[in-house]
Amino acid sequence: MLSRAVAGLRRRFYLPRNAWVLALSSTIWNVGGTMANPYQAVFFSTVGANAVLIGYLLAMSSGVTAIMQLVGGYVADAWGRKKVIVTFSFLSATSAFLFIFTSQSPLLVLPILLSSIAGIYGPAFNAMLTESMEPQLRARGLVTFTLVTSLPSVIFPYVGGRLMQTFGAFDGLRIAFFMSGLLGVIGVSYRALRLKETYLGSETEKKKKGIPKLVYGFFKDNAYVLRNSSGEAKKLLVYSALASAGTGMTVPYTSLYLVRVVGLPPEFYGILTNIAGLITVVLLLPASRIIERIGLSRSAIYASISVPVNQIIFVNAKGRDEFVAWTAIGGASGALLGPSLTALQADYSRQEMRARLMALFSVFSLITAVPASIFGGYLYGTFGPLASYVASVPIFLLASLMLARIREPHKPSN
Hints:
The protein is mainly alpha-helical. It has one domain (about 10-195, about 205-405): Growth Hormone, Chain: A, CATH 1.20.1250.20. The protein has helices spanning about 1-15, 15-35, 40-45, 50-80, 80-95, 110-120, 120-130, 140-150, 155-165, 170-195, 205, 210-230, 230-250, 255-260, 265-295, 295-315, 320-345, 355-380, 385-405.
């Protein structure tokens, strides 16, 4: 009976088998991740990193991840999806354990670097996820995937804040990182056992022998993908870079600002994160209908416009009610923006070059995040914690204008 009920839910919300495996394994992993990740900057500060150093650490993470994403896109299109997903998912999950042994800021380099290297599996993951879905149902499938994987964010950020409140920032977050690593390994083990390959790779690339040919093929193919991508895909690349600049300047320092400067209790910040997750989950189902009715491009545009508005609300927030409003708008925006953008990226990429092109979306974002994180840390430490949020508003507006130039890939239903 339980299996029939699960099968019925999967049909209703459209989550094909491979997508279901990816969603369930990610959700298990996210239970621990949402305990620790919202408070990452607080942990960095606790072990002695100031805002500028945090910016440099995150810039290093973005730079290394960008390189790994490029390599990952090439490997996934040349050799297939599953092997790279499973291998580097395990590496990423186990990197959380290193934070347990980190007591000084220089040691933060090790887990951050390991996690960044493991980012090589990202393009293969995104390609396999979208390939598992019928193109006309892809937006609904991505909404369902986001719904399932967002469920831990409704509860477990509060658990992380409660751990900090009870055991202190250092010991409480070490427990959270341990849970992140443990549940990550469990989730990835399920992924390794149940995942099915969706693309076996290019026979031409498989025949290449030796490092020089592989390196040459890597650069040649990524240049080919960039040169031969559609005009709409190139606009999405520019949007990704602009949006990442604004995000890199602000998001890494949010928990640090609210907990250290505003003085919110860690568990209340966890509640704010829970509210964002709950709103995202509640709105994801109507979001799928909105996307199918008005189209992917319009959905993404409407959601992106709310981002600079929300930054203004954050800058002017004085009390808990204003921060709750900021959280609510952010959760609503995320429910619409994430699935519509991913579906647009998939629709404007051919399967044989999909992993490489989706890697380039990440790479453009990550490369932009390198100077943005450093600049954001400099603004935070030099001109005050709100300076980076003020500076991000025109950047997010430019990103929305770029998104407004992208045409609709499918005609919306009436």
